[in-house]
Amino acid sequence: MDTHNLNVDPMVLAAYAMKAFNQTHGLAYAQISQDLTIRQASPNFAQFVDLYQLPAGNLLTDILPTFVGLEKTLQDILDGISPSYLLEYVAYDLLDGTVGYLNIQVTPIDDDNPGYGLLLLIEDVSRVGRLQQTIVQERNELSLTQYRLEKAHKRQQQLNRQKSLFMSIIAHDLRGPLSGIQGYAALTKAYTKDERLLRYSTNIISQINLLNDMIGDLHDLDRIEENKIALEIGLDNINDIVLEVTKAVATDIEKKKQTLHVDIPTESLEIQADTSRIWRIVYNLLNNAIKYTLKGGVIDLHVSKASDDTILIKVTDNGIGMTEDEVDHLFDLYYRADNVQQTGATGSGLGLYIVKGLVEAHNGRIEVVSKPQKGSTFSAYLPILA
Ligand code: ADP
After folding, report:
1. 221: number of CA atoms within 13 Å, CB side?
2. If we measure between CA atoms, which residue out of 109, 128, 95, 107 comes closest to residue 25?
3. Strand bridging mode 118-124 / 99-108
4. Under a CB-based contact definition with an 8 Å cutoff, are residues 73 and 49 in contact?
5. 292 in ligand 1 pocket by Cβ < 6 Å?
6. What Cα–Cα distance (Å) separates residue 20 from each residue in 10, 27, 191, 296, 370?
7. Whose CA is nearest to atom 4 of ligand 1?
């Protein structure tokens, strides 16, 4: 066994241990005399101050220019006026071109006799310093991103307002000429004895009604998006509204040779609601049931009291139905499922978005159950009292 190491001088061993400790912990120290020259320094001190020799005998401010202008502060410690001084995260250039960070602390060597000299401790905190630098940088980038987002949001709001204005102008401007055409069609219908003209004018009137509905949709769509739909609440008989809608869809039902079962209570069901909006809810649901059910299919329209204070309007069809995934997106704006290819029905993907918006504006809720190739059921629950 090699016993060579056992003969090493304990002082040399202690010096090695100190050096190793200093290196692993990134610590260095120096003793400073009263005249602010360096009395003695640890062997690794030079590496922190970029010197090749030990700095003993030099003025502290020459070796560490950070202390230029701090002479009075150091003197105060020597005079026992202040207890210590700490400089944090002092940046210094490393040989590899990166930046290192030091914490430098100055305290009296002997607290009871501060005039004896100062102890200067240097701690390499580059790792923490760099982390802090990264955090500051990332925080700055975050603030910048947040600022950009806010700006984009403001721009979006501005565009929305412009769009709203545009929509209401369009809606307003379209209604004028449409009512003119409708008037002439009504006159033709009233005065003609010609069968064909009578049919044409009836068709023109029903198409104009449809266009008026679409303009209403555009108007509502905008309000729903802005979350400021203004309901015109009145007391109405839900049976009457529902029957009105069934008349409006009668031609479409006939064209597709479908059957519509209407199941409404015999007693009148009063509801405090916006009649035209309830009309639209029922119309959109029935219209979809017709569009997405094949020829000869069956549609059920059911109205009842779901509870003391809620009315249920339920539309069931045995049409093409939807997958679970399609149901999940059903009420999204402009959403049209792949199933539309099965019937070729045209649409804009606005109808159900509007239905949901109007139901919720009445503080109600809408539920859907659907199965591909089996059919769908839409249930709208509306409070009786607004
Ligand atoms: P659209 O103008 O396309 O009819 P909607 O918002 O009314 O728009 O409906 C969105 C989509 O939901 C439709 O395109 C269709 O894919 C599906 N859908 C709606 N109602 C039904 C239904 N009763 N049966 C099957 N699919 C339906």
Report:
1. 23
2. 128
3. antiparallel
4. no
5. yes
6. 15, 10, 112, 92, 74
7. 347
Tell me how far apart the alpha carbons of residues 283 and 237 are, in angstroms, rounded to a whole number: 16
Q: Phi/psi of residue 43, each to 5°?
A: -55, -30
**What's the pLDDT tens digit per position in 275-300?**
989 998 999 999 999 999 999 999 99
CA 288 to centroid of ligand 1, rounded, Å: 6
Query: Could you report the per-residue pLDDT of 368-380, keeping only the tens digit for each?
Result: 999 999 999 999 9
CA distances in angstroms from 294 to 102, 341, 346, 349, listed in the order given: 79, 12, 14, 19
- Which of these, 119, 122, 39, 40, lies nearest to 84 by C-alpha position? 119
347 Cβ inside 6 Å of ligand 1:
yes
Helix or strand or coil: residue 9? coil
How high is the mean pLDDT of the chain?
88
Instruction: Please tell me the distance between residue 216's alpha carbon and the centre of ligand 1 in angstroms.
Output: 19
Among 217, 221, 288, 358, the mutation site with the greatest number of ligand 1 atoms within 8 A of its Cβ is 288
pLDDT, tens digit, for every residue of 131-189?
Answer: 888 899 999 999 999 999 999 999 988 887 787 777 777 877 888 889 899 999 999 99
What's the pTM value of the predicted model, to 2 decimals? 0.58
* Residues in contact with 238: Cβ distance below 8 Å, sequence separation at least 6, in sequence order: 264, 269, 270, 271, 278, 303, 311, 313
- Written as six digits, the tokens of 210 are 């449809």
Question: What's the chain's length in residues?
Answer: 386
Alpha carbons 77 and 86: distance in angstroms, whole number: 12
**Neighbour count for residue 149 (Cβ, 10 Å):** 10
Q: How far is the CA of 217 from the centre of ligand 1 (A)?
A: 15
The residue type of 277 is R
The angle subtended at Cα 101 by Cα 142 and Cα 93, nearest 5°, is: 105
